[in-house]
Amino acid sequence: MNGDRPALHVAVIGGGIIGACTALELAGRGHRVTLVEPGTPGGPQSASYGNGAFLSPASVIPMSFPGIWRKVPGFLLDRDGPLSIAPRALPRLAPWLLRFLLAGATQDRFRRTAGAIHALIHDAPARHLALAARIGRPDLVSQDGLLYAFPDRAAFAAEAMSWDLRRELGLHWEEVEGEALRALEPGLSPRYRFGVLLGAGAQCHDPGAYVAAIVAQAGTLGARRLAAEATGFALSGGRLAAVETTAGPLACDRAVIAAGIRSAALARRLGETVPLESERGYHVEIEAPSLRLARPVMPSDGKMANTMVAGRFRASGQVELSSTAAPPNWHRAEVLLRHLARTYPGLEIPAAGIRRWQGHRPSTPDGLPVIAAARRVEGVVHAFGHGHIGLNAAPATAEMAADLAEGRPPRIDPAPYRAARFRPWRPVSLAPPEAADDRR
Ligand SMILES: Cc1cc2nc3c(=O)[nH]c(=O)nc-3n(C[C@H](O)[C@H](O)[C@H](O)COP(=O)(O)OP(=O)(O)OC[C@H]3O[C@@H](n4cnc5c(N)ncnc54)[C@H](O)[C@@H]3O)c2cc1C
Hints:
alpha/beta, 440 residues
């Protein structure tokens, strides 16, 4: 029993950070949980394995912002930029791209989206510190601040729209220049003369191990793992009866779809169309690096997250719009390596032994996840589409998904994350969420 409510059997589909946190949250509330995941939870098949490990309340700025359309030709032509679009994928991507451009076309939409991201991540460092302690791995999360590095103050000022909005949302930071910046991060190239130190920022020290530890903790509370792939759903009178899996049907009361980039295909089986594309990302890692960072760094020009992960020097970033099925384009990893060499002159880039990884950010065009009860079937909850903020937003998402599975209203207003905002005939929600007639 969970308070006055009977315990439910909940199938959580997907063992990335969202599924792991949701499984733990539900098991902690006394429910019977089965985590359906064909791979190792937090393994390299998941975005949750290879991310930048930033737990930053400043990650509120959506990818689509007013004026971004002017940059699209550059994205198509610049082979070494932080964002690239594969020309041959353009016809298939066009509807998603149109929604993406419209999502940030006005200040109003841009700011509304940032506010909805803020609601999910403003307390992410505190939530993750508590979570790491709860799973007995306090070593996996620490709050030593995050450093955003710029060539000079003018480069920072060029991003005023984003930083002003962060300030309005209540974020504080310290500006550091010249020698003070050098003292904070001696390895940074002298090219960087201005920095923003976000004291509230935290980091995860090994995102893959973190997911595995969360799942292990859920296991100690009775959660079971099913090493299988979910393939669909069996319904009875409009209600969920079972999750179909490659290991046979799994009878359950509720299911949470948290399968990252594969989630939209599962949601489609329930009649829900969510435009979800992979923003393909990459990382490179140097083992036994000649230089270590005191805290994570994001250089403004490279648009990459530089973090020490399990003793390795990781650079992660790049947004590549192509297709999920296409093989990795390791040129993107080379771009990260070149940025690394320019950013940290003292960092030796070995000729061999660099670890390279490619993964899929599960991205909606407006940069907000879908956290909502399924509309056409009772008993299914969507918890996917976290794009760039999945690690940050996982504890808040898990709490919301568990509330929705239990049928109670989440503490965070769920309106901005409803699937109904993507209507086939309406690329983005034009009405403020309060005016929506169909939120679930
Ligand atoms: C390069 C890069 C850098 C990033 N940096 C950051 C960062 O610094 N901070 C941050 O907050 N976020 C960051 N992100 C984003 C973050 O990693 C993702 O948003 C997050 O990992 C998504 O988690 P998820 O659980 O939804 O999906 P995933 O981690 O992809 O997990 C989905 C899981 O579902 C399983 N699955 C798929 N299909 C099925 C099925 N049919 N049945 C059962 N299981 C299935 C998969 O095997 C997988 O294990 C970054 C992402 C990338 C790629």
